[in-house]
Design goal:
The chain has nine helices and seven strands. α5 links the parallel β1 and β2.
């Protein structure tokens, strides 16, 4: 940690040091939690499948927090040029193996996407579960990054924990910094609108749908969001 605060970046780094985080390498190595994206790690999200079936103009995409690559690989199968980021070296290595078996190409990058100097402009940004693990102070960085890399009229897809489904921490941003970390932060629909409406057109915010063939199941505790850069 730096000894002094001289700028905004130093404040963010100081706050980063003050919060707990999941060890994602251990998470993917141990595979102790029977979460859907571990047990069904080659299946895409139903909302992603529906979106790409309805949008034929998506040629390039960046995924945040790609895990073992299930959504990035699905996008590549649709002919989309994809770069996918994740913090976990274990997850990225697994993703590359699954990609090889699938016979497609994805640019998998093991790096903190929030702290990466991305210069690409893409048609689509997708995040299936990274946003709700961010500390509140990093949401500002996150939104600015999405706006920076998304082309005008480009789309931003998001899935995140839903408040009221007993799946994650139901706390305010102020409570977060004195809270014992559990599973991530849950959001109300109103809070998502408050965060994203100033920056994007809201296309939809709905509950995840199970029972869709060839997609991941058991995510009814998630919001599905689609936004458009205007």
């Amino acid at each position: 940690m730096k000894p002094y605060i001289n700028n905004y970046a130093d404040i963010l780094e100081l706050l980063d040091e003050k919060v707990e985080s999941i060890n994602w390498n251990s998470f993917y190595e141990e595979r102790k939690r029977p979460v859907p994206f571990i047990t069904q790690n080659t299946m895409p999200d139903e909302n992603l499948v529906a979106f790409l079936h309805s949008q034929t103009g998506i040629k390039s995409a960046i995924e945040f927090g790609c895990g073992e690559g299930r959504n990035a690989i699905y996008m590549a199968k649709q002919g989309i040029k994809v770069t996918a980021y994740d913090l976990s070296a274990v997850a990225i290595e697994n993703a590359k193996k699954i990609m090889t078996d699938a016979g497609v190409n994805v640019n998998f990058v093991c790096k903190d996407v929030i702290k990466s100097n991305i210069t690409d402009k893409v048609d689509f940004v997708y995040d299936s579960g990274m946003f709700h693990h961010l500390s509140p102070h990093r949401r500002i960085t996150y939104i600015e990054l999405v706006k920076k890399i998304l082309k005008s009229d480009g789309y931003f897809g998001l899935t995140c924990f839903s408040w009221g489904t007993n799946c994650a921490d139901e706390i305010t941003d102020w409570e977060y910094y004195n809270h014992k970390f559990n599973a991530g932060v849950a959001f109300t629909k109103e809070r998502l609108i408050e965060l994203f409406f100033p920056h994007f057109e809201i296309i939809e915010i709905r509950n995840y749908q199970n029972g869709v063939p060839n997609t991941i199941q058991g995510l009814e505790f998630m919001w599905v969001c689609l936004f458009k850069r205007t």
